[in-house]
Write a structure and sequence with these properties.
The chain is α+β, with helices and mostly antiparallel strands. Helices cover about 20% and strands about 35% of the residues.
């Protein structure tokens, strides 16, 4: 299964991103829009199988993921990427910022943190980035 990465534009922290997704979920299904359907969309979401995830980048660090539920149509001929609003925390991994989304191969995806870790308990993305730059993690 293939994954996507995306910068959590405007999110200043993991808590901020979690709150934004929670607010959007109150209004209905949570989705992001993009201009084009990913060419490899069938590798991301396969019928009857657990699909890929959207890995969020905050301050140049992959910090969490949202499972991708599927793809659909959005206004203006755009494509909707439907995601689960619940964040799954991952091990922090440095990742350069980019525009739009990018593919992430399964072997390159960071591992999930244990289920007993809450959003506020994760190491701040900025600290992970600094430690990684120093070669400490």
């Amino acid at each position: 299964m293939l994954h996507l990465t995306k910068v959590a534009f405007g999110a200043t922290s993991l808590d901020h991103l979690a709150e934004r997704l929670k607010q959007r979920a109150a209004d209905g299904p949570v989705f992001l829009t993009t201009r084009y359907l990913p060419k490899r969309h069938e590798e991301i979401v396969r019928e009857g199988e657990k699909g890929g995830s959207l890995y969020w980048i905050i301050k140049h660090t992959l910090v969490a993921r949202s499972p991708i539920l599927g793809f659909g149509e959005a206004e203006g001929g755009r494509v909707a990427i439907h995601i689960d609003p619940a964040l799954v925390l991952t091990e922090g991994r440095p990742k350069r910022a980019h525009q739009g989304w990018r593919y992430l191969e399964p072997g390159d995806a960071p591992a999930d943190l244990g289920g007993d870790v809450l959003v506020g308990d994760a190491m701040p993305a900025a600290l992970i980035g600094k430690l990684a730059a120093l070669g400490l993690i």
